[in-house]
From TrEMBL:
It comes from Variovorax defluvii. It catalyses: Release of an N-terminal pyroglutamyl group from a polypeptide, the second amino acid generally not being Pro. This is Pyrrolidone-carboxylate peptidase. InterPro entries: Peptidase_C15 (IPR000816), Peptidase_C15-like (IPR016125), Peptidase_C15-like_sf (IPR036440), PGP-I_bact-type (IPR029762), PGPEP1_Cys_AS (IPR033694), PGPEP1_Glu_AS (IPR033693). Its EC number is 3.4.19.3.
Amino acid sequence: MNILLTGFEPFDKEAINPSWEAVRALDGWRCEGALVHARRISCVFGAALRELDAAIDELQPVLAIGVGQAGGRSEITPERVAINVDDGRICDNAGCQPIDQPVVAGAPAAYFSTLPIKAMVRALRAAGIPASVSNSAGTFVCNHLFFGLMHRIATRPAPALRGGFIHIPCLPEQAASLPGMPSMSLDTVVDALRIAVATALTVHDDVRETGGQIS
């Protein structure tokens, strides 16, 4: 069995992207009999989905999880829902800035993650790692990839494949030049992804407990 973890290249003039640093640390790790494969994805609308499709075609994974940086967040945040809209606050790495465009024309407005996101949050908190369910993956390339993944799962069914997306905080070396920016060490993020992957492989019916937010 194969597991696909994706992380993004740096963007917005950053020198590193913690999502790629974290997932590449897990490349070759075995969990519950499955082998993790890390893939670096372009921070470019359209190209990101082509690269994701190629990786899924190659690996035929049982689990596919996208990981992305969420500056300003202080926790590991499994995403609940991907929405069918691209609305770039900034340009992607190819200089494109779609505004109010669908990720996939004619597709549903949204897809839910098929990961046990609340069980993942529970397991992370039990390990002493700050975590919560997120109800918005934004409208940049992270959500673009997340929606594309879930659309593929919905329209090209592979019986064993489940997927979703996890946002992670910035690294301390990034936050050092951004006063007030929350951060989390790379070692902690890697440990968190190990827990998230193991939970996703072993929990098939998510726990029922509050994960909602007021705003």
